[in-house]
Structure formats: C-alpha cells, structure tokens
Amino acid sequence: xxxxxxxxxxxxxxxxxxxxxxxxxxxxxxxxxxxDRGLARRLPEPPQENQKKEDVDIKERxxxxxxxxxxxxxxxxxxYLSVDQLRDKAKEFIANPNDDEKLPEKVAEExxxxxxxxxxxxxxxxxxxDRGTSYKTYIAVQxxxxxxxxxxxxxxxxxxxxxxxxxxxxxQQEAIRKIYPQVISEAEPKKYGEQK
Length: 196
Known about the structure:
five-stranded mixed beta sheet, two-stranded antiparallel ribbon
C-alpha cells in the first residue's frame, strides 16, 4: 500500500513586513546616535560687488604667531610652550595690560558703558598647523585660544556688572566684544615636516 504524502501547511507571512517595520522603528527610536560638533566660528561677511580690495598692513607686534608642527609641538612667537601655557600667553597678548611695546599697540576707542578705553583693536592671533598635526592637539589649541577670550570677557563683565559675560544683555556683550574682539586667523594646513 502506498503512503500518501501529507501536505505541510503554509506559514502565513502577510504580517512579516509589518513586524520588520515595527522592529526597525523600535531600534531607530531607542538607539542614541552621536552627533558631530563643529567649531563655533563666524565667517566674515561676503564682499560687496562694488567693494575695492584693500591690502591691510598689520604691524609685526600686533600678530601672535601660533604654530603646531607634525609632532604636536606648539610654538608661540619664538618659544615652545605646552598647550596648558597657551591660554595665559594669549590673554597677555590680547589685553596687553602693561602697554608693553612688544605686544599689540593700544588705540583709544569710545565704548558704550565704558567710555573711552585703550584697547588692542588691531591684534591678530595667527594659527598655522602642519598637515600631520593630530586632531586632538588642533582642537586643544583652538579651545585654549577661545578660552582666553572668554576669560578676559568674563573678568571684565565681573568687574563692571558682577555677572558672567554670558548673563549680560546683547548691548553689554557687544560693548565687551568691542574691547576684546575675537580675531583668530587660520592658515590652510601645509606639510612642513616629514612624518616618520
């Protein structure tokens, strides 16, 4: 007698797509994703159509040269510093508290809330990096330079209004930015040294 084959019942797959969609949605909603952060920089305004190109001569004393080589060594002016020392050096350069003739020249400027102030209006911090500079060192140098401005602004806000710079209104912040304008110039990285 021949055996009859049994039919295997089919599996109902009509809801498989719905289940896959629900699982995908669940993982998308519950997974935390890292977000990239950039450097907060304000780009200069684009030139007007009829604006003439002017060459600006900057005196040597008004420029603080900051260079990071491929070995992550930091050179500020003519001397090597650690990243930890950069903030104090930058603060001294930006403020020129003793009106040192080797630091940026001071110019008398009328500033709201402060009256006539002698400020280093024309100072520039010039940052150059080697292509081999590590990203970690580059960010650390950037952070120290920005922190120098932030500390000077906080100190001035504390002495004038007894609050931090961030807690001031827009016109007060603008007055402090006029005294301590953030001027960091970055050159395109070049390959100065050879990596081994």
